[in-house]
Amino acid sequence: MATTSRSGDDEDSTPAMRRLRRLSLHLLQPAAEGGGSLVPAACAGRRRAGGLDADAAALTACLRGRHRAMQARVYEFYVARPELQTPVELPMAAHRDLCFRQMAALVREAGVRPLSLMAADPAEYFAVMEAVGGLDISLAIKVGVQYSLWGGSVINLGTKKHREKYFDKIDNLEYPGCFAMTELHHGSNVQALQTTATFDPVTDEFIVDTPNDGAIKWWIGNAALHGKFATVFARLILPLQGKGGEPADMGIHAFIVPIRDLETHAVLPGIEINDCGHKIGLNGVDNGALRFRSVRIPRDNLLNRFGDVARDGKYTSSLPTINRRFAATLGELVGGRVGLAYSSVGVLKVSVTIAVRYALLRQQFGPPKEPEISVLDYQSHQHKLMPMLASAYAFHFARSYLVDMYSEMKKTNDEDLSADVHVLSSGLKSYITSYTAKAISICRESCGGHGYAAVNRFGGLRNDHDIFQTFEGDNTVLLQQVAGDLLKQYQQKFKGGTLSVTWNYLRDSMSTYLSQPNPVTARWEGEDHLRDPKFQLDAFRYRTSKLLHSVAARLQKHMKTLGGFGAWNRCLNHLLTLAESHIESVILARFIEAVKSCPDEKTREVLKLVCDLYALERIWKDIGTYRNVDYVAPNKAKAIHKLVDYLSYQVRLVARELVDAFDIPDQIIRAPIGMQSEAYAHYTFCVATLL
Fold first, then answer.
1. CA distance 679 to 675
2. What is the helix (H) or strand (E) element at residue 477, kind and residue range?
3. Paired strand residues for 236
């Protein structure tokens, strides 16, 4: 007996057995209430008996938008055309050629007219953008440059004469074009662009010039190879109309500038085009640099919706100041930001789907003398992926809300709604793209060595998506716009003004949300209370209101010694945190509303579970803020932490159905480890064909 006992002790003391013992302990799941642990199988049985079996088809029905049929049409078109599918390895020149052929086939063979869709129903246009992005993110950006930017600038900044001349030929791809805003020295600060367009009253033309190297138009999509026109943003200069007969600078305007011959495709005189070369990602897009040397264009090429120049050189505008004209011009270009936020959610869905399916498939370790278990049964893996899956659902409903608001804005041209969409699109684009960029890396890491294989897509997704954080507005700059608008709303509150739609919860924030936290509710830790949408949304809004109140006080204090710019810079991190907090409040509010409006009871239960995880995980991540102001007592903080772990486990039980509900075809997922079945067989086949 003694010998047997010592033998067992010796066996348990080996490194392998110690590791197995630790891993077994690691599997124990936290209970929702009180102490102790819960055995996974027993927990699964209890919860499933409670009616939380998820139906992927019912979830898909809840997620599916009005234009799923159009997306299916796009998917089916490309799946049937293998020569149009992007291979894993492709040189830059071949990728650019393929990307243009993919876009041309979409328009000329599949019969999709993106510019017409954007004008008639923006929601359908964005659905197409997500679908083509599933094939290749380079294609989505190429389509976006042609239609959102080049086409969008013509129809939104031009007038009837421009639409009549250009609309159809942009739509059918006869006029491929560029959007030439960014310069070598200026990207975010558009008002400081240096390119000039000087009116010549003798010839009735504008003369477009690049005055120095810093004014070279840089990173211009479609410029290096395919573009025939460019919408060029330049300073409109009127000779002799300034003070003392000096030239008058009327601010930034947009001009249509031909850059290549329509027949021969030769670069036109006075235009210099250089290739920006190989990039970290998106190498199917031909980015180029444009320099203009006294390029003459007709006066009619001024996109004159917000400002015009008559034959005699007289300038007229319905907007009295340069700043108002500039704001109106940029306000008409928010569709690009809406599209990036929309597409970024699509990238997140693909990444999470691959990671979750692989985590369900992959088995590593297990209790002694028992089968290995799925890596998604490990608490640490659930902690990585389940909040991310919940975020994908939250962002899905937030982007739908944004697109609905944008569509309404385009129908009504309501100024207040336009301002609201401008700020909301800035915030959601910034928040979602930053989150997705980090999530892709976490998904890659969660798939171990196989996540590093190019065929499993994380490298390409990460590199192609990374720039989403920069173009159409740098994320840090966009968050400052959100913060600035919140401060404006805050000021109007005290002046008795009305609040815009998205910010209307601030109407009560200075009283309800800024009162001292209730010491009784601060200690409530029951599951029903913590999973109450009112508690969750109140917590989000309390944090935003507290941040808004405190940063307003700090700015007022620092302005006395540092001035406006210095005070803003001193409080910049505080302002960015405020903006993110507000956007999180908007996202949660839309998720809660989507749960309430789901007609199927069982599906609503599943969505409620996912929504609870999204909300409580966000609260836990910023628990220090809530603790510092006594909004959450220590015991309540601990209960939130336990519940987040518990909810992550519950979401794990329906994770397969939740990713299947995204309804992304395997041909679009493409990563072998993310296939719905026989993933390893797909993987070995793909690797064999690449060798």
1. 5
2. helix 475-494
3. 197
Q: Tell me the pTM.
A: 0.88
Query: Are the C-beta atoms of 239 and 198 separated by less than 8 Å?
Result: yes
The answer to whether the annotation marks 221 as part of a ligand binding site is yes
Taken as a whole, the chain contains a residue count of: 691
- Indicate the SS3 state at residue 450: helix
Distance of CA 472 to the CA centre of its chain: 11
Tally of CA atoms within 13 A in the half-sphere of 275 that contains its CB: 13
Q: What is the DSSP letter of 243?
A: G
Rounded to whole angstroms, the Cα distance separating 71 from 129 reads 9
Contacts with 8 (C-beta within 8 Å, 6 or more apart), sequence order: none
Return the active site residues: 472
pLDDT tens digits, one per residue of 316-352: 999 888 888 888 888 878 999 999 999 999 999 999 9
> 6-49: per-residue pLDDT in tens?
334 444 445 444 444 444 434 334 444 443 333 333 333 333 43
Could you give the CA distance from residue 277 to residue 483 in angstroms, rounded to a whole number? 36
Evaluate whether 316 touches 238 at the Cβ level (below 8 Å).
no
Residue type, 517: P
Q: Which residues sit opposite 257 in a β-bridge? A: 230
Question: 575: which residues sit within 8 A by CB, 6+ positions away?
Answer: 479, 480, 483, 551, 568
Nearest Cα residue to 288 out of 230, 234, 212, 214: 230
Structure tokens at 451: 């996540």
d(C-alpha 153, C-alpha 179), whole Å: 8
| 309: Cβ contacts below 8 Å, ≥ 6 apart | 199, 236, 238, 299, 302, 315
Instruction: Report d(CA 83, CA 105) in Å as an integer.
Output: 11
User: 445-472: string of b/e by CB count within 10 Å (b at 16+)?
Assistant: ebbeebbebebbbbbbbbbbbbbbbebb
